[in-house]
Specification:
By secondary structure, the protein is an alpha+beta fold. The protein contains six helices and four strands. A hairpin with a 6-residue loop joins β2 and β3. α3 runs antiparallel to α4 and α5 packs antiparallel against α6. It is rod-shaped.
Length: about 250
């Protein structure tokens, strides 16, 4: 009798063992799922092969992969980006959500664009435009960052306008010279050329003045604190040609 009572608790313990193990396995599975789900929601900025790569966590307890999307806009927004020459990328950084990623990525793009704008070098101004275009597509930026973006876009627009003014004034100068030559001939074309030249004169003066003021402002801004531009092709007065154009 005593022997049977001794065996009963042992049998009961053996019966409970599978249930305990099932509970443990279920608990571990739940914890593993939560950890995997959290990992899948994380984002990273990772330096890789000289570029900054956006990566997203995979649905596992650890691991990440380069972000890919069927949405072309998202693919362009988070495509790998190369920093300016000479810039060293920081170690990889994790982010708990996309807004945090967007704000950190914006800070980098804005800093690179600002440095490129201040250089007043044509090629770097074009790179700055690319950084700002990428920054403008980030949906999770803060209000202050959107204000900063508008300010930087205004600076690049100024250099574009200054170049257009210089080009326009140069075209008007060439037109005035051609009209002067035509007015020195004989016949009705000479009278028309002389009339057009008189009409063009105040327009040319205004264009020259506007181009001069833009050039002066760019030079003074450079002298106030912008870093000196490295030797290389640049327009007079620090003006920057638009993309795809070249000075004659």
């Amino acid at each position: 009798m005593a022997e049977e009572s001794t065996k009963s608790p042992a049998k009961a313990a053996r019966r409970r063992s599978p249930l305990v193990w099932l509970l443990v396995v279920a608990l571990l599975a739940a914890v593993g799922w939560l950890v995997a789900d959290r990992n899948a929601r994380q984002w990273w900025l990772v330096p890789e092969d000289g570029r900054l790569v956006v990566k997203k966590g995979v649905l596992f307890v650890t691991g990440k992969a380069t972000f890919k999307s069927d949405d072309p806009e998202l693919s362009r927004t988070y495509a790998p980006v190369a920093p300016p020459a000479g810039v060293t990328l920081a170690p990889e950084r994790p982010f708990d959500d996309r807004s945090a990623l967007d704000q950190a990525l914006f800070a980098l793009l804005a800093r690179w664009a600002r440095d490129d704008i201040q250089s007043e070098q044509p090629q770097r101004i074009q790179e700055a435009r690319g950084y700002l275009q990428r920054a403008a597509r980030l949906a999770g930026t803060s209000a202050a960052q959107r204000d900063e973006l508008r300010s930087l876009q205004g600076e690049t627009a100024f250099y574009q306008a200054a170049w257009d003014l210089e080009q326009g004034a140069e075209s008007l100068r060439r037109a005035a010279e051609q009209l002067r030559m035509a007015s020195e001939t004989r016949g009705p074309i000479a009278a028309e050329a002389m009339s057009l030249g008189r009409t063009l004169e105040p327009v040319l003066q205004g264009a020259n003045q506007a181009a001069l003021e833009a050039s002066r402002f760019a030079s003074e801004r450079h002298a106030r604190g912008a870093p000196p531009a490295a030797p290389g092709p640049a327009s007079p007065g620090g003006l920057v040609p638009p993309e795809g154009s070249a000075r004659p």
